[in-house]
Design goal:
This protein has one domain. Helix content is 69%, strand content 0%. The chain is globular. About 2% of the residues have low confidence.
């Protein structure tokens, strides 16, 4: 009994084990300004044309998106759910572009091909697949919730809309439809922020530090928590660019997807300190804006 009491209430403070937090075993995070995401896009745009093979990744993702549209065209509820949830799995899909950005940073510009970028997938192994599975679960949850919510809130009111435009028009024409649309937007925003916080720098951390899934997501959560304002601006910019791609029938995604992927890497470099950086936690970014 005495030993049990001593373990619960140790006499020596050194015996007390510190509680695990996001700071436990993770690198320091710099604070950035709200203008930083614009600089990431600028640097990402330059990288895209230094490594135009990134456009191949954009083409593949666009082809995947167009395939979704073709398969679900007669089911606009499903089309709306899948397109709106597309951003959830984006961080995992960007692994190849992130690898190109990493190689560019290390001066490897002469031998950048699709093989080198896709080589990151087997290199990361189970860590990447586990992260992708988590995003996929969130994606499936969102799809099911959205279809069920719209269906329950609009029973008998929507009929059988033949296109996504007709579905939105019908929903906006009734009070119940507007309420259901607001519910979708609010729930989608909450889930998107959660997914964004988990994945904003997860894949770059895996590539750069060979971090496992949990450690990489902890770094991502820490980066988001230290810079919530700039991170929400970054999320809004990504959403706007994706919305532009949707308006062009996803054609613009050929360029937008790798552009964002390269910018992601610069965001990671801006926020996450190297192990050999002599900076205190939460120090401002020395690069500037």
């Amino acid at each position: 009994m005495d030993n049990l009491i001593k373990r619960r209430y140790p006499e020596d403070p050194d015996e007390i084990q510190p509680r695990q937090t996001l700071d436990s075993g993770t690198p320091s995070i710099r604070r950035i300004s709200g203008r930083a995401p614009l600089r990431w896009l600028s640097e990402g745009w330059k990288d895209l044309w230094r490594a135009p093979v990134g456009l191949v990744h954009g083409f593949l993702v666009t082809a995947f998106g167009l395939g979704i549209l073709w398969l679900t065209w007669g089911h606009p509820w499903l089309t709306m759910a899948l397109l709106s949830g597309f951003l959830l799995v984006g961080p995992a899909l960007a692994v190849g572009v992130n690898e190109l950005a990493r190689r560019l940073e290390h001066g490897d510009r002469d031998d950048l091909g699709i093989g080198q970028s896709l080589g990151a997938v087997p290199a990361l192994g189970s860590s990447l697949w586990l992260f992708a599975a988590l995003l996929a679960v969130m994606f499936l949850f969102w799809t099911g919730y959205m279809a069920l919510w719209i269906g329950v809130m609009n029973v008998g009111a929507l009929g059988r809309p033949e296109s996504l435009g007709e579905l939105l028009g019908t929903m906006l024409a009734s009070f119940r439809g507007i309420i259901s649309l607001i519910g979708v937007v609010v729930a989608g925003a909450a889930l998107a922020v959660a997914a964004f916080a988990l994945g904003v720098v997860t894949v770059p951390a895996m590539l750069d530090r060979r971090a496992g899934t949990v450690d990489a997501m902890a770094i991502s959560l820490k980066a988001f928590s230290r810079n919530p304002g700039p991170m929400l601006i970054w999320a809004a910019l990504i959403t706007a660019l994706f919305g532009l791609s949707v308006l062009t029938a996803l054609v613009a995604l050929i360029v937008v997807f790798p552009w964002i992927g390269f910018a992601m890497w610069h965001g990671y470099r801006d926020m996450v300190a190297h192990d050999d950086d002599s900076i205190p936690p939460d120090a401002p970014n020395p690069i500037g804006a």
